[in-house]
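A.,

Following up on our hallway conversation. Structure tokens first:
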């Protein structure tokens, strides 16, 4: 017999003995306890019925017949307290087992109150304590409630008064034919400890008590069976309880008997386990000691007598022998773990580098955003100077140079915003293959004829959601970077593929899924590891001074990251460079958007424009340009000033032009509050922020347009005319319908 068989047989025997004992105990306790519970419930039910019969006040008949007495009707009709006192004397109360009565007129005033002098001298000296009579009778014409006897709440024993009421109906009918209620009669019965202790006891241990609503059962133990009837006031709140309980000795006997049975069962099981231990020690414990000694001494000689056994002990001995022979495999495993830790350290280094780029990007984005305000003014006023100096060639040339320098600076800020992922994108579903095909000829002219451009595009549409202009900028920047790496000519390969990332997605900091991969490879000089680590940092360049800004690859990095993708680089000195761009694959056909640019025309209809901008130089420029186009324009440097203008002089404002970020009130709040005052006003935000940053302003359902900073006066006027013309067209079509 194997060791497993022996153990299984032993466990079966122990489980059978233990479960049999528990079943016997359970059945015995259940039967006994069920009998006790059934007996107590039956006796309590009978006792309550006897108690109610002894009191001679069934719930429905306590005051019903008393209210029909002709003397009470006569007393209420005559409004005579003396007649009421004669009808409600001590004899009448005693015959109905009552302690007090109150007779109220129909208007809610007390006509007469009387109580037995031996029961409760205070009951007839006051109306029903704390009762809103009108609210009570409106809810229930025949109320039934309790109140605590005055002066008893502070003592250990509680006293309550049970009150029932019924209307007193006269002979005269109402207009609808129903009897007219002359008043209301309330009858009260005092309940105290003496009354409830007169309940016929069921057992010597039975206890009966009147207690407060929140009081526990007096003397309650784990063996207590109890019954509690709530006593509620005129508002339905529980103010006391009528409690019957019994600390049953039968339950204690059941528990004691169960404990004795359980102790006997445990003792039997312990004895059985001792026998099993002695029987199995020779078959199991001694071989285990031999195996333990072999492990401590690192030798397999003690295991030889056990290796031939066909049992679990023999299997364990053979496993230990195999373990001792596989120590070299453990060394290899440790080497593998060391290599894994090295890879993890490299991943941490990549993460720190990514965080460094994020920090530099935030700084660059903030600088570029502030610089955009200055460039807006520089380019705008330069454009105005060109108009005004059209007849002065020298001044016109100087204005053009200022405008050209401003545009060059704006290009640098756009690159900084692209790296920091703060530029405004216009994403749509585009086919990456189509963009490469359309750009191939232009790219060839940019990089020169000495470099061969080869395209290897995926056979199916490679659709992504991105700004097509920015994707073109990415391809051109990578092409120019490859041209500079191949000064003597070479080969540039652009390839698109479809890839599904699962485990590799974590290494690229991307969620798993399907991606389109744009690969740009050259056969140029390549880069070393130190250069690769800094290649995406802004203003980093390996070119000679004056040959580059160092923003080309940082712009690529920012555009790709803002498009929810990533970019990787593989390069070695003398073996060329490969950039791989991963963009999320999009389902559906590419979008085709036709953009119509309207010609600049003088304002056809008068329009009011409100400009809200905290930068004074930008605000003055916008106001001057729009006034020159014939618009009625007002400027404000903060949200509160704009709201004041709308309330006083600009309630008919047609267009609100506002910056998004201002110190007192942001642009979204200004737009919402202006629209409350002028519901037909259109909204144009001028900002250098990206669409994600604009969404963070909490614009919600507000409809608006966005103009990217910096802008020229021509672009501003065209945008304003486009918004106002669309508003005018909508109004015309709506009026014609």
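Then the amino acids I'd put at each of the 737 positions:
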């Amino acid at each position: 017999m194997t060791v497993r068989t022996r153990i299984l047989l032993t466990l079966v025997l122990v489980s059978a003995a233990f479960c049999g004992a528990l079943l016997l105990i359970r059945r015995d306790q259940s039967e006994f306890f069920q009998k006790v519970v059934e007996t107590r419930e039956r006796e309590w039910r009978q006792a309550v019925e006897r108690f109610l019969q002894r009191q001679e006040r069934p719930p429905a008949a306590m005051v019903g017949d008393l209210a029909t007495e002709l003397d009470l009707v006569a007393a209420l009709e005559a409004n005579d307290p003396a007649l009421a006192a004669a009808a409600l004397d001590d004899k009448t109360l005693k015959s109905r087992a009552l302690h007090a009565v109150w007779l109220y007129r129909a208007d809610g005033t007390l006509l007469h109150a009387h109580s037995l002098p031996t029961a409760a001298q205070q009951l007839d000296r006051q109306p029903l304590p704390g009762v809103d009579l009108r609210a009570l009778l409106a809810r229930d014409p025949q109320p039934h409630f309790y109140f605590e006897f005055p002066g008893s709440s502070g003592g250990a024993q509680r006293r309550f008064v049970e009150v029932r009421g019924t209307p007193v109906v006269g002979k005269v009918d109402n207009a609808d034919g129903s009897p007219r209620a002359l008043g209301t009669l309330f009858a009260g019965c005092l309940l105290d400890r003496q009354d409830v202790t007169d309940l016929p006891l069921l057992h010597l241990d039975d206890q009966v008590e009147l207690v407060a609503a929140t009081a526990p059962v007096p003397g309650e133990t784990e063996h207590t069976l109890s019954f509690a009837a709530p006593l509620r006031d005129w508002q339905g709140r529980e103010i006391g309880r009528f409690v019957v309980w019994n600390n049953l000795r039968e339950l204690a006997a059941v528990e004691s008997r169960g404990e004795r049975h359980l102790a006997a069962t445990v003792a039997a099981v312990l004895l059985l386990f001792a026998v099993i231990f002695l029987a199995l020690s020779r078959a199991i414990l001694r071989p285990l000691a031999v195996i333990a000694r072999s492990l401590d001494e690192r030798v397999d000689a003690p295991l030889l007598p056990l290796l031939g056994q066909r049992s679990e002990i023999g299997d364990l001995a053979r496993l230990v022998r195999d373990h001792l022979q596989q120590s070299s495999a453990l060394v290899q495993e440790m080497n593998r773990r060391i290599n894994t830790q090295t890879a993890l350290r490299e991943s941490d280094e990549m993460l720190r580098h990514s965080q460094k780029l994020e920090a530099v990007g935030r700084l660059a984005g903030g600088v570029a955003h502030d610089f955009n305000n200055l460039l807006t003014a520089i380019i705008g006023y330069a454009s105005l100077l060109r108009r005004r100096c059209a007849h002065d060639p020298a001044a016109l040339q100087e204005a053009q140079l200022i405008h050209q320098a401003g545009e060059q600076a704006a290009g640098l800020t756009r690159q900084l915003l692209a790296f920091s992922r703060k530029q405004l994108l216009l994403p749509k579903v585009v086919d990456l293959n189509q963009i490469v095909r359309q750009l191939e000829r232009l790219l060839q002219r940019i990089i020169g004829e000495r470099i061969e451009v080869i395209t290897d595009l995926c056979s199916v549409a490679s659709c992504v959601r991105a700004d097509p202009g920015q994707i073109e900028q990415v391809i051109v920047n990578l092409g120019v970077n490859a041209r500079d790496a191949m000064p003597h000519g070479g080969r540039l390969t652009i390839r698109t593929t479809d890839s599904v990332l699962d485990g590799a997605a974590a290494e690229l900091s991307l969620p798993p899924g399907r991606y389109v991969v744009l690969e740009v490879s050259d056969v140029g000089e390549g880069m070393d590891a130190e250069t690769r680590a800094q290649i995406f940092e802004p203003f980093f360049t390996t070119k000679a001074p004056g040959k580059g800004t160092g923003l080309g690859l940082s712009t690529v990095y920012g555009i790709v990251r803002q498009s929810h993708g990533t970019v990787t680089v593989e390069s070695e000195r003398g073996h060329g460079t490969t950039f791989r761009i991963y963009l999320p694959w999009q389902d559906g056909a590419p979008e085709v958007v036709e953009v119509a640019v309207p010609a600049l025309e003088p304002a056809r209809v008068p329009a009011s424009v409100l400009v809200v901008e905290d930068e004074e130089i930008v605000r003055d420029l916008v106001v001057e340009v729009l006034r020159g186009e014939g618009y009625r324009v007002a400027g404000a440097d903060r949200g509160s000033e704009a709201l004041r203008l709308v309330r006083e002089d600009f309630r008919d404002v047609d267009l609100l032009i506002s910056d998004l970020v201002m110190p007192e009130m942001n642009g979204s709040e200004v737009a919402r509050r202006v629209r409350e005052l002028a519901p037909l006003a259109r909204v144009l935000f001028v900002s250098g922020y990206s669409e994600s940053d604009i969404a963070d302003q909490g614009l919600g359902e507000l409809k608006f347009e966005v103009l990217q900073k910096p802008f020229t006066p021509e672009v501003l006027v065209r945008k304003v005319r486009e918004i106002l013309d669309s508003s005018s067209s909508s109004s015309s079509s709506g009026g014609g319908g």
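The chain has 21 helices and 20 strands. Curious whether your intuition agrees with the design.

B.
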